[in-house]
Structures are given as C-alpha cells and as structure tokens.
Amino acid sequence: MLSSSSTAVKNPPLKRRLCFLLKLVCFVSSVLIFCEFLIYYVVIFQCRWPDVKGEAHMGEKETSASVLKAIILADTHLLGEIKGHWLDKLRREWQMERSFQTALWLLQPDIVFILGDVFDEGKWSSPQAWADDVRRFRKMFKHSLVTELVVIAGNHDIGFHYEMTTYKVNRFEKVFNFTSGKLITRKGINFVLVNSVAMEGDGCAVCRTSEAKLVALSHKLNCSQQKPNHSNKRCSEVEKLPTSEPILLQHYPLYRKSDAECTGEDSAPPEEKNVPFKEKYDVLSQEASQKLLWWFQPRLILSGHTHSACEVLHAGKIPEISVPSFSWRNRNNPSFIMGSITPTDFSLQKCFLPFESRVFTIYCAAGALLVILVLAHVQLLTPPFYFAQRLISKHKAV
Description:
Distance between the termini: 45 Å
Order of helices and strands: HHEHEHEHHEEHEHHEEEEEHH
Oligomer: single chain
Family: Belongs to the metallophosphoesterase superfamily. MPPE1 family.
Strand content: 5-15%
Organism: Certhia brachydactyla (short-toed tree-creeper)
Strand order of the largest sheet: 4-5-6-7-9-8
Pfam family, one: Metallophos
Keywords: ER-Golgi transport, GPI-anchor biosynthesis, Hydrolase, Manganese, Membrane, Metal-binding, Transmembrane, Transmembrane helix, Transport
CATH topology: Purple Acid Phosphatase, chain A, domain 2
Transmembrane segments: 20-43, 360-387
CATH architecture: 4-Layer Sandwich
C-alpha cells in the first residue's frame, strides 16, 4: 500500500515536467517555423503586380496574354570556399532560397532576371569550387518550366576588367547561356543583355567582341523601328525584330556622379551618398554610357552592383533603376522589383523581403520569454500574481 501511494505521489511531478517540456518544444518549434518559413509567405503575400496603362480596359484573358510579369533581382553573392564561412553560407542561402521559392509560388512570374554578381568568388574560383557554387545556385533558384530564368554577368562572376579572361567569360556563358549583346524577345518586348564589365573601351579581346555584337544588334533594332515606307538600303536585308523600344539589362549602372540624389528607405546610407563614384569601377564610364544610350535609345535601364536602390533619368527622359541586393549579407532590407511590361509601356513595384532586424527581434523576445517560463517553472522566479499576493498578506499581518 505504501509503495503504491509513493508511486502515485511521484507520477504527477513527472507528468507535469513532461507536459512542460512538450510545451517548450512546441513553443520553440513554432517560433522557428514562423521565422524561417512562414514569415516569407506573410511578407511576400502583401506584394501585388502593378497595373500598366490600358490594362483596366482589357479583358482578363487579353491582359494575361499581353502583359509580361517579370521579377528583377540583383547581387545574390553566393559565398565561395575562400571567404565563405559555413554558417554564413547556410543562413544566407536559406534566406534567399525561401524568399525566391515563396515569390515564385505566390506571384507566378513569367520571367526572372538576375542582374549579375550571382557568385561572390567567381572571379577567382577554381573549377571545383565553381562547380559547387553552380550546384548550390541551381538548388536555390530552381524553377518550373513555366518561369524562365535569365542571368546577367557581373564583376564578381567573371572578374573586374583587369581580372576578366576569355576562360571565365566562357565558363559563365556555358552555364547561364549568356552572351553580351544578346536579344531576348518575350510577348513582343525586347530585352538587351549587356556585359557591362566588357564596356571598358580599351579594345581588349572580350571588349571588342562584346561591342561588335551590341553594334550589330543596335542596327537591327533601329532598322526594325523605321516606318515601312522609309527607304534605307542598309536596312533592306536586315532581319526585322519587334518594334518595341528595348529595355537594357546590365550589372554596372550608367555613369552618375554619386548616389546623392537617390531617395527611399533602401537607398545608400547617408554617409555613403556623397562619395563620388569611380568610373569603370562603381559605374560605367561616361563614354560607355553615352554609347549605350545612343545605340539603343532604351525606354528603361535596369542595373545592380551598388547594392542600394536608386532611380535616375538620363538625357531627361530615360529612367534607370538600380536594383538593391537580394542578400541579407549586404542589406537589412533586401527586395526585388516586380514589373508588368507591355511592348509600349511598363509599371514597376518594389517588394521588400522580411527585415532581418525584425526577425532578430522576434528571436530575442521569444528567447526572453522562454527564460522567464523556465525560471518560473523551477520556482526560481516568482510569478507576479503570487508575488503581489505575498506582499498583500505581509501588509495585512503588519
């Protein structure tokens, strides 16, 4: 009788401990699932595709057929084997993978453009390291056949001009099917892909090849935009392309003095805005910028490289959007651009990803609450109710 009663006394505390432990596991699991998975759905779900002019007067089928939905992001900087710490890799790549996959699932874009610096160490990585980086990239940015992925070369992918070699360029082109001066036409919209690293203007082998392709493509586009009754012998045998004014996609921005005129919460920090940009390093040279504007007369330019957002007008009419970095390693508030584009118009909208500071705050708050619950459970911390009750009873006794 005594042994059975003692067992009954011991069992309730054991059950209470197991129940408390289960509650802690559920609490910790819920916080992890929210911060590492659900938060991306909560934040990206709030993003909406922008409307373009005339879209309201179209039918639903006509709209989906004529409007191209494009996502534009830049500077993912997948860490390599030299500078990349394994924990930093794990954290940043998980964040970008979840963001990208969530955006694909919720927004269902027709095409995704990545504006260079996909890798952080492509400029000096060995063949083995390059193969590993490419494998990780394909895992993170996998997509269905419904969505097309187009990747532009950046200086960290093939090296700055003085580091760029034919081998590195060919290695990148082989993986991503990228060539400078390549034209992509989707739904009657012309996109021109530019290897801006090769716009040095010094006549290097890669530069000569790149510029020759751009000049030839410029000639085709200009001929295609001429009126049918316009007589031009130089255009008589040229392949005709859609008449839509092109959109330039490149890594380096066109020349601007600095980011002093850039505004917005994801523009450069105040201490960096007035720092002058170095030509051929931070931005293209004035000469290369004028060439691209003169050759293509684009209606929009999209670039990356600076890791911060900026919008400028060239020649008073041609907008350029600098897309901020997609990696939390470079920004507390990464984002991407959502574009609704037609052959004659476009509309852009920014979609911010979860702020890392907010995720950190949630973890800190959850950790503090967890400590309080544990201390209260082991009676090292008196719950406020009982503490107040004890004070009242002592006061009455006095």
